[in-house]
Design a protein that fits this description.
- It is a single chain.
- With 808 residues, the chain is of the alpha/beta class.
- 52% of the residues lie in helices and 12% in strands.
- The strands form five sheets. Strands 3-2-1-6-7-9-8-10-13 form a nine-stranded mixed beta sheet, sandwiched between helices.
- Residues 10-120 form the N6 adenine-specific DNA methyltransferase N-terminal domain.
- This is site-specific DNA-methyltransferase (adenine-specific).
């Protein structure tokens, strides 16, 4: 069975719980990721001749499993597994599995490592049969863990990871996806961290490219090497060392060392590195990185990394580098460097990003895009302020799929978009003294909602506010006339009651026609897409599928009035992430099989030993029970719904009866607990008592309702059990066509339809809310308000006088 991403992530993250108590995230990530690496390479390469990764005899994951429970497990893992594996594949700085300060001593270490290994024995983590899309799953799982570790590591230790969303933008905007890319194309990251940015660029390329990376931190460079292997890039060259002081990638030019040059360079260097010049004489740099543009300040290393990148590019090379906004406007030496770069034409574009995206800092950053090709003919710099498009994700901000796509689209097409992006000519930049601060060129501020004084004094809705809703009036020109009429020049009044605004909009023929066109638009996409989805065969690539689907949907809605095509696109991407992706991987591995399985809950004691297993019923991931019931057993479900409604009604009557008669001297006042036994006992006590006739009536009514409730509960339980059995028995009867209809029509497209039609509701609600807001704002002119206040004041004064008070 295919590995579900959601199951894989939860399994891997649970392994972290085995270590969490002994160390912080920056440390325990090393153990978890090394276990993941060993499990993967053992499954994929053990026993294979000429494999790109060597698994020495006795150093596989199976050999590690054999060590579980042994008293010297940590020492044996180091000597027999990690050591030989690292030596055979040149993987330095592996974590110490016998470190008592992190893993504990004696039984604590044995249990911790034993449980950690056991987590990776999960059958769902069998990578031996997942050689194509399984590699993608594994690599994505690695990214998932890296992101979580970076989040938990805090500011000082989260720099090893560039958010995948930013990496994807950089990979796309440098243009590596074109047909010109070949296996000879080279990509370099001088500060590669764990290698995630480098790999995203490699993924974006149209052919398998050659990857190079250098990382200063030895442990992080080890993570990068493993990351390359886990992403099926075992030949990538990752070297450890200080890039500025000791660059590892060099070439020989007439007997002299020079920097090796690359087709593409990407980087997320440490922001404002105050120790960048350690080990360097910038004025006599042997690689000539600072002689053309200037020497960066000693305590500000941002331009040092950028100049290293420029020197490492071929004459037609392209690069993207993440830097703090300070590089755009800081003065003195940095201003001179910036001026020289602009005059050389090397800066193609600047993209401002939201604040709090990165794990090492909360400050906003930008992407500087370098393009040496055509630099001499460059007449401007394309600037984009994309700082407002993001979502909150715990303590950090995160770019959504729609934000990524929009940034890439606008930048790639070099499209001028108000308040977002435009091409800025060099003359304008020169007039601003080569200051590249984005607010100087792009006003991304949200217009203030101004109050109209004349409207408040004399009444009437300002026509300028109504004109601002022009996109709606373009689609529904008659709707404006249905809502507003002229009060006086420049001011309008509402023609309908404020309570009727919503119905006037919804029921207007033009708006109804617009909604119908939008519904037909989705129906057209659905009719076009459903056959393609049903034609999917085992072995297809889910990642290719979502690219094709999402791009098709985006293009389908592009240019449509009022609706934001990127918001529609986001609905599909959200559903893909939560549900559709797992379904696609199941189908890619096993075909259209609706297989049920038992849900077993395992309970453990404090020592981690299983004490009990509980059968929680059954489930089917691809075709959930609700889909079977809705399509084949709708009448049975309707009967259950009726029973549920009846039960709710009876329960409500019981509750109401108890509340009504629970006061002092009421029927239930003396009850410790109201149940059948206590009520029956009380009825026997008062039997024949004429004074207790009303109490007896209440208690008898309670007994009658309680019996009805019990009967309904039993009937409901029996009906639900019968429906559950019928649904369970129906799965083996499903044909492949049945399964396709259930998954594609009833599940995927039904959910997407509801989400995208929700955009129509958002459009109508936005118009309704704005019209009502304007109507409320100018509903009562100030003179009328003043008269009303005076009237109320007079009435209050009269009342006070009647009461004997004089109000001055």
């Amino acid at each position: 069975m295919a590995i579900k991403k959601s199951e894989l992530y939860s399994s891997l993250w649970s392994s972290c719980d085995e270590l969490r108590g002994g160390m912080d995230a920056s440390q325990y990530k090393d153990y978890v990721l090394v276990l993941l690496f060993i499990k993967y390479v053992s499954d994929k390469y053990a026993g294979q001749p000429y494999a790109p990764i060597t698994i020495p005899a006795g150093a596989s994951f199976a050999d590690m499993v054999a060590l579980k429970g042994t008293t010297d497990i940590g020492d044996q893992i180091n000597k027999r597994i990690v050591g030989p594996l690292a030596a055979a594949n040149k993987l330095a700085d592996m974590p110490d599995f016998n470190d008592a300060t992190k893993l504990g001593t004696g039984k604590e270490m044995v249990d911790r490592l034993t449980n950690l290994i056991a987590t990776f024995e999960n059958p769902a983590l069998d990578f031996s049969k997942n050689r194509a899309d399984g590699d993608d799953i594994l690599g994505d799982a690695y990214e998932y863990l890296m992101r979580h570790f970076a989040t938990e590591s805090g500011k000082s230790k989260g720099q090893f990871y560039t958010p995948a969303e930013v990496s994807r933008i950089m990979a796309k905007i440098i243009g590596i996806g074109g047909a010109h890319t070949t296996s000879a194309t080279t990509v370099y990251d001088p500060t590669c961290g764990s290698g995630s940015l480098l790999l995203k660029v490699g993924d974006e390329a149209s052919a398998k490219v050659t990857l190079y990376g250098q990382e200063k931190d030895s442990a992080t460079s080890g993570l990068a090497r493993m990351n390359m292997i886990l992403h099926d890039n075992p030949t990538a060259e990752i070297r450890q060392g200080n890039t500025l002081a000791d660059p590892k990638f060099k070439a020989d030019l007439n007997g002299q060392d020079v920097l090796k040059t690359f087709d593409y360079v990407v980087a997320n260097p440490p922001f404002s590195d105050k120790r960048w010049s350690t080990g360097i004489d910038p004025l006599n740099d042997p690689y000539g990185r600072f002689e053309t543009f200037g020497v960066p300040p000693a305590k500000q290393g941002d331009f040092a990394y950028l100049l290293h990148i420029i020197r490492s590019l071929k004459s037609t090379g392209k690069a993207a580098c993440i830097l703090p906004h300070g590089v755009l406007f800081r003065g003195n030496v940095e201003a001179d460097i910036r001026k020289n770069l602009i005059r050389h034409g090397y800066i193609k574009g600047i993209i401002g990003l939201p604040a709090n995206l990165f794990y090492g800092t909360g400050i906003p950053a930008c992407i500087i895009v370098i393009d040496k090709e055509g630099a001499h003919a460059r007449k401007g710099i394309f600037m984009m302020d994309a700082s407002s498009g993001y979502m909150k994700d715990g303590p950090k901000n995160r770019l959504r799929e729609q934000d990524i796509h929009k940034i890439v689209d606008v930048f790639t097409k070099q499209t001028d978009v108000p308040k977002l992006a435009r091409m800025v000519g060099l003359e304008e930049i020169e007039k601003n003294e080569f200051n590249l601060n984005l607010p100087r060129y792009i006003d991304s501020s949200v217009p203030e909602d101004l109050q109209d004084i004349a409207g408040h004094l004399q009444g009437g809705i300002p026509e300028t506010d109504v004109n601002a809703l022009q996109p709606y009036w373009t689609v529904c020109p008659g709707l404006r006339q249905s809502l507003f009429t002229t009060l006086r020049p420049g001011y309008l009044s509402l023609t309908v009651d404020k309570t009727a605004i919503k119905s006037t909009i919804y029921e207007h023929p033009e708006f109804a026609a617009f909604i119908s066109r939008m519904n037909a638009l989705f129906d057209g996409w659905q009719q076009q897409t459903a056959p393609k989805l049903k034609a999917l065969q085992p072995g297809f690539h889910p990642k290719h599928l979502i690219v094709e689907l999402s791009e098709n949907l985006l293009a389908h809605y592009t240019g449509q009035p009022l609706i934001d095509e990127y918001a529609v696109y986001q609905h599909l991407m959200d559903y893909w992430a939560t549900t559709m992706q797992d379904d696609a991987y199941l189908i890619a591995a096993d075909g259209w099989k609706a297989e049920t399985y038992r849900v077993i809950e395992v309970k453990k004691n404090k020592e981690g030993k299983v004490t009990k297993t509980v059968d929680k019923g059954w489930a089917c991931d691809l075709v959930p029970k609700a889909l079977i019931v809705a399509r084949y057993f709708a009448k049975d479900q309707a009967a259950i719904d009726e029973l549920t409604a009846s039960l709710d009604s009876i329960t409500a009557q019981l509750t109401e009866l108890e509340e009504e008669h629970s006061g002092d001297d009421a029927a239930f006042s003396g009850f410790d607990k109201i149940n059948k036994a206590s009520v029956s006992d009380r009825l026997r006590e008062i039997n024949g008592d004429a004074d207790a006739r009303e109490e007896a009536e209440v208690l008898n009514r309670w007994l009658k309702l309680a019996k009805e409730e019990a009967d309904l509960k039993k009937r409901l339980k029996d009906a639900e059990a019968a429906l559950d059995a019928m649904a369970y028995a129906h799965y083996p009867q499903l044909s492949e066509e049945d399964t396709k209809a259930l998954v594609v029509d009833d599940k995927w497209l039904t959910v997407l339809s509801a989400a995208i039609h929700g955009e129509m509701d958002r459009i109508s609600q936005a118009l309704t809310q704005r019209v009502k807001e304007l109507a409320d704002r100018y509903d009562t002119p100030m003179p009328q308000m003043a008269r009303r206040v005076a009237e109320l004041e007079t009435r209050v004064t009269q009342h006070l006088q009647k009461m004997g008070f004089v109000w001055n």
